Amino acid sequence: MNCDEALRLIDAYHDGELDSMHSVEIERHLAACDNCAARLNKLRVLREAVEQTAFSAPRDLRASVLASLHTPPVENAKPRLGLTTGLALAAALVLGFFLAQVFPGNSSEKTLLAALTDSHIRSLVGTHLVDVTSSDQHTVRPWFEGKIDFAPPVEDLSATGFPLVGGRLEFVSSRPVAALVYERRKHFINLFIWPGKTSEPITEKSPQRGYNLLHWAKDGMNYYAVSEISADDLRKFANAIDSSQ
Amino acid sequence: MENENALFEQTILPHLDAAYNLARWLAGNETDARDVVQESCLRAFKSFSRFRGGDARSWLLTIVRNAAYTALRKRGAREQFLDSEILDSVADTGPSAEQILERAANIEAVRAAIAQLPTDYREVIVLREMENFSYKEIADMVGLPIGTVMSRLARGRRALQEFLVGGAAK
Known about the structure:
The complex is a heterodimer of chains A (245) and B (170).
Chain A: H1 3-14, H2 20-32, H3 34-51, H4 61-70, H5 74-77, H6 83-102, H7 106-125, E1 132-133, H8 137-143, E2 164-172, E3 175-184, E4 187-195, E5 200-208, E6 211-218, E7 221-227, H9 231-244
Chain B: H1 2-11, H2 16-27, H3 30-46, H4 56-75, H5 84-88, H6 97-104, H7 107-115, H8 119-130, H9 135-142, H10 146-169
């Protein structure tokens, strides 16, 4: 094999795409020809240089992809808006109301966990993380007044490494819910609060689509914390909230 | 429906990095790349019932590629061409391995060199050097004969080393 032939085949050899007969020939040539051996070395160096420049998906892209899959585009629904849709909507509302009454039963817990996770994902992808932005609990707490029929306890946990970001109003299973947003090293935690059982210990719920969930109840309030932070960190957060009240 | 969703998330979403990487290299910036990935995943989701096993990564990346080219056309991106000198030369007169190695330490310089490649050369470089696809897989994804993939790859590499080291002299 001469240099011309070797240089024509050297990319394929480097890529492991050359048949064994040609491989043997080119290897024999490379052993004897410094120029072609240098070319192979260059290909290897180039690959290493290029490999390291690959981009990783931005951290929140997964969440925004998931959210778009679960929220079908509006344009599809529009032309079909009519009596049928209206009826279906009414039926859904009635069903939602019914579910809210049964709530919190075990059968609906799965639906609830999925709804809370959806809400968490939605809050991360859009521009609607919070309705009121403030790290001051004395600003966030009064903001809920008049918007909901209960007063969610709002605590800033900056001291324990979970600064308060703000709050927003959510509708989960047809009832208004206070959502408080906390931050943990660039990751967010949604803490959902609404009136419920008097007291329940902090329990881990099965993770939903990679997000961790914790539930507890205290002083007649239901709490659900949802986040992509580790289960350990989320428990630290729950303990911090629990002991701050 | 729920199972279908879970299956999609398990099969397709692990390849989000690869999808974004290809989209980012074809679309040229983060914003467009995100849109391309977002749209591709939605398309993949809708046609997931037609996915009959096989390699999910190349299936997804084919969709990403199409979406990226559509986005480029919409943006009115101009087609670029390689210098005919690079196209015609087979002999290796370019920079030395040491010179390449020296430049390789600067990731942004390498990225700038790759960005200088025309899109059809850049994509085979990305698919081969970063995503490790075989010639056959690349040929199937871009819809070209294997021979064309091979020559694009070889020329793309030669052009790349020129851009990489040439960029240093300027």
